[in-house]
Beta-lactamase-related domain-containing protein
Amino acid sequence: MQFNPGNLASPNTFGGWGAGSTCFWIDPERELTFSFLSTGLMEDSHHIERLSRLSDMVLAAVTR
């Protein structure tokens, strides 16, 4: 499954996710990094969708 850092990330953003609902990404164009750590496992599709929405919320808040 391809990493999706959300709809607001620049095209060069890269990162990944892991077990326990963790995620990180680096957006070199905006000089931003993001790391999210939590506990508990979610199904892959719900986990990825949730982290993509969270990434969009973070980017919307810091790129105004």
Observations:
- The chain has a mean pLDDT of 85.
- Residues 21 and 44 are 9 Å apart (CA to CA).
- The helical segments are 44-62.
- The chain is about 30% helix and 25% strand.
